[in-house]
Amino acid sequence: MTSTNATEETIHAALEAAKKGLEVLTKDSITELRSFARPPAVCLSVFDGIGILFEPTKAKFEWSDAKRLMNDQFLYRLIEYDVDTITDEQLIRLTAVLARDECQLDRVKSTSFACYPICTWLHNIVAYKKIQQTHT
């Protein structure tokens, strides 16, 4: 296998890991998240990351914005999100959000199982973009 093929496979594997993480996200999980009037801090932080991707020009992403995004198309939009459109600025902002204690996967999983696959997706998207940047 050539170095180029190995790199392409690594990049592809990171993207597939991002999508695979969403397999456990259900409509019921999304409904649970939407039902929070005052969500846990981990959910707020995870959705700060979602806001960076889906509404990058918004200065402050509120829970009401997150609830609006969590419609019937939310899961589809995550799965079909074109990660190649993420700008360097978005990547920097998203990396900073994911570095918060509230976005550490073990903490998210123990606090909100419904939010965990979304956080995993965000972490894998960042990994994909960083691998892609190093090899292009």
Number of spatially distinct domains: 1
Q: Please estimate the helix content.
A: 55-70%
- Secondary structure: number of strands: 0
Kindly state the mean pLDDT as a whole number? 89
Number of contiguous helices: 8
Give me the strand/helix succession: HHHHHHHH
Which range does the strand content fall in? under 5%
Using only C-alpha atoms, the radius of gyration works out to 15 Å
Oligomerization state? single chain
Q: Tell me the overall shape.
A: globular
Residue ranges: pLDDT <50 for 5 or more in a row?
Answer: none
**Largest sheet geometry:** none
CATH class value: Mainly Alpha
Which class of secondary structure composition applies to the elements? mainly alpha
| CATH T-level topology | Histone Acetyltransferase, Chain A
Describe the structure.
The chain starts with a helix and ends with a helix. The protein is built from 8 helices and no strands. The model has no long low-confidence stretch (mean pLDDT 89). It has a single domain, classed as Histone Acetyltransferase, Chain A, CATH 1.20.920.60. The protein is mainly α and 136 residues long. The longest helix is centred in the C-terminal third of the chain and has 19 residues, at 116-134. Helix 1 packs antiparallel against helix 8 (116-134), helix 3 runs antiparallel to helix 6 (88-98) and helix 6 (88-98) packs across helix 8.
Short note summarizing the structure:
With 136 residues, this protein is an all-alpha fold.
Fill in the keyword field for this structure.
globular, mainly alpha, 136 residues, Histone Acetyltransferase, Chain A
